[in-house]
Design brief:
heterodimer; A: about 300 residues; mainly alpha; B: about 280 residues; alpha/beta; Rossmann fold; Alpha-Beta Plaits; 2 domains; six-stranded mixed β-sheet; four-stranded antiparallel β-sheet; about 30% strand
């Protein structure tokens, strides 16, 4: 069997909570919220967004809203996963078992980073698609129960697929954007002697930032960490078309907008901008360096 | 080339303590080597150096490979039990089998499952639900299913009761060992394994005190229960050790001719445990 696939399966076996159960919980919340919203929103989706373009925007906003929500909480779960990824087996001694098998430390560490960047992202994406459908279905059912033509919400499949493709793209860029955080936590997980790696991962830059603030009266550390966190492809990408960027009009008037392009294009444009910033690639470089350091640290993990 | 392990001048220090101090060792194919020493003697350090888990100074080749830089390639031919409790607690046995099967070219899942069937342990159980003895059985089944040239065992039966310990070594000998394989085992319980060993290495404070085959030990050392009248004569022969047990003087001699010894009393083969204590005391004296 393929080794890479096996390494992924191994992680899923060990971290069912972080990967599967978290998705389950988020699904539960979405279903509940969909039901409440479906009942609360009097009219159907199509009543709110009657025409083609605004309709598509509404579908997209619902999908991206759900996707962003899942992504946010899933990311917290991934932080927990990463912080234990190279620490837990050192703590309980099983690192000696894993390293008695012919699997390189490079493959091990990369598999853990890939779990978050690709497997985790894939899970979020699937959850977003399913959650999106559940939400629209709940809304349509509630609207139909009130006599409205609720199921017209599914009338334009292009809007649905477009949203999903857009979100997939946003997630890929997002994974790269947060690579320095992932690398940092993985590195801390590989070197923490005892205690909780996540606390170290947060405390070290926090203390360093405060020290910089006091001694040098500057805040480069806080600015770098903060700006990378405050801007994110997923969260900055999608709101850009809830308000028409050129006309500054609220969404309900988008139907009369003179822009004929698919509204997702403006969002995609915002995400493309991330790829063009030096900050993006400096972050990626830092992330890769930290992962390389984590691999080196892993080699020495059975030393004591 | 028959050398499985070739080590020259291995050195390793942890802060102030010296774990390995100029250790040299040669082990050939088909041997079962017992690595014997007190706690903190450097046994674990040496075994981890052999398996590429630890970087040490000096020249070291295992199966013609450098363990630290070629660990992955080496571990295809080396199986290792580091401790009685290194299997991941969260995992189910069948998951460990699946994983090992996928990453290890020389692992036979069928063989492992057969061994496990004999133990009666359900492979759907999680490691954390197993007793210590069961964990060791599972780990042994796993490594015995690896077609390895070298098996390294670091205190594999520590904390197990005597029945488990006996079965462990019996299984190892009957179902695993042959002339093409080499086993290195470190242990405290010398008495239980000395009959299966072909070679013995004593180690203390990072230094090798004795490196000898069992045949050499039997030829070179002898234990004599000396008759009361011959005690003084026995002392003249510079015994390694003299113990008095229930009024009986027992001497341990090194390199004394058999005829001389039989004149003193009843000669018997030297037990490794006695030789070990004698060597340790000699060192301290």
């Amino acid at each position: 069997m393929n080794t890479a696939l096996t390494l992924v399966r191994r992680e899923l076996w060990e971290n069912r909570g972080n990967f599967y159960i978290m998705v389950g919980i988020l699904f539960g919340i979405i279903v509940l919220a969909s039901a409440v919203l479906g009942i609360a929103v009097g009219g159907s989706f199509s009543d709110l967004y009657p025409t083609g373009r605004a309709h598509a925007v509404g579908v997209a906003i619902a999908g991206l809203g759900i996707g962003s929500f899942i992504f946010l909480f899933y990311s917290l779960s991934m932080l927990g996963y990463l912080s234990g990824a190279l620490y837990d087996d050192r703590k309980d001694g099983s690192v000696l078992f894993w390293r008695s098998l012919p699997v390189s430390d490079t493959a091990t560490v990369i598999s853990k980073a890939a779990m978050v960047m690709f497997v985790g992202s894939l899970f979020v994406w699937i959850a977003m698609v399913v959650g999106h459908l559940i939400f629209l279905f709940a809304l349509a059912t509630a609207a139909s129960a009130r006599g409205a033509a609720g199921f017209t919400v599914f009338a334009s499949p292009g809007a649905l697929f477009g949203t999903w493709v857009f979100f997939a793209y946003a997630m890929v860029v997002q994974a790269l954007w947060w690579l320095p955080y992932y690398g940092w936590i993985l590195f801390v997980s590989a070197v923490t002697p005892r205690g909780r790696p996540l606390i170290w991962a947060i405390a070290i830059p926090a203390v360093a930032g405060v020290v910089e603030l006091i001694l040098a009266q500057t805040s480069h550390i806080f600015q770098f960490v903060g700006s990378h966190l405050a801007q994110s492809p997923i969260f900055n990408g999608w709101p850009s078309f809830s308000i028409n960027p050129e006309l500054g009009q609220p969404i309900t008037s988008l139907a009369q907008s003179t822009i004929s392009a698919n509204p997702l294009y403006s969002g995609a444009g915002r995400i493309n901008e991330f790829l063009a910033t030096p900050s993006m690639w400096i972050g990626v470089a830092i992330g890769l360096c930290l992962i390389a350091l984590a691999i080196i640290a892993r080699r020495y993990s059975a030393t004591s | 080339m028959n050398a499985v392990i070739e080590a020259r001048g291995l050195k390793k220090s942890y802060r102030k303590t010296c774990a390995l101090n100029d250790v040299s060792l040669n082990v050939e194919r088909g041997r079962i080597l017992g690595l014997i020493g007190p706690n903190g003697a450097g046994k674990t350090t040496l075994l981890r150096a052999l398996t590429g888990l630890l970087r040490v100074d000096g020249e070291l080749e295992v199966l013609g490979k450098h363990p630290w830089s070629e660990r992955v390639a080496l571990m295809r031919d080396v199986a290792f039990i580091a401790d009685t409790a290194t299997l991941p607690k969260w995992a189910r046995i069948d998951q460990i089998l699946k994983y090992t099967d996928a990453v290890h070219p020389n692992f036979s899942r069928e063989r492992a499952e057969n061994f496990l069937k004999q133990t009666g342990i359900d492979t759907r159980r999680r490691i954390k639900t197993l007793s210590k003895g069961m964990k060791v059985q599972v780990h042994l089944a796993l490594v015995m299913a690896i077609d390895a040239s070298l098996l390294v065992l670091d205190e594999p039966t520590l904390g197990l009761d005597i029945l488990f310990r006996k079965t462990f070594y019996t299984n190892l000998l009957n179902d695993y060992f042959d002339d093409n394989r080499t086993i290195i085992v470190s242990t405290h319980q010398i008495e239980e394994i000395e009959h299966i060993l072909t070679d013995v290495v004593f180690i203390n404070q990072g230094r090798i005190l004795l490196d000898s085959s069992m045949d050499e030990i039997n030829a070179r050392y002898a234990t004599v229960a000396v008759k009361r009248d011959n005690v003084e004569a026995a002392r003249q022969l510079q015994p390694l050790q003299e113990t008095v047990l229930l009024g009986q003087h027992v001497f341990l001699f090194e390199g004394v001719a058999q005829e001389k010894l039989s004149a003193l009393g009843e000669v018997s083969p030297t037990r490794v445990a006695d030789l070990f204590t004698a060597k340790m005391q000699e060192k301290q004296a």
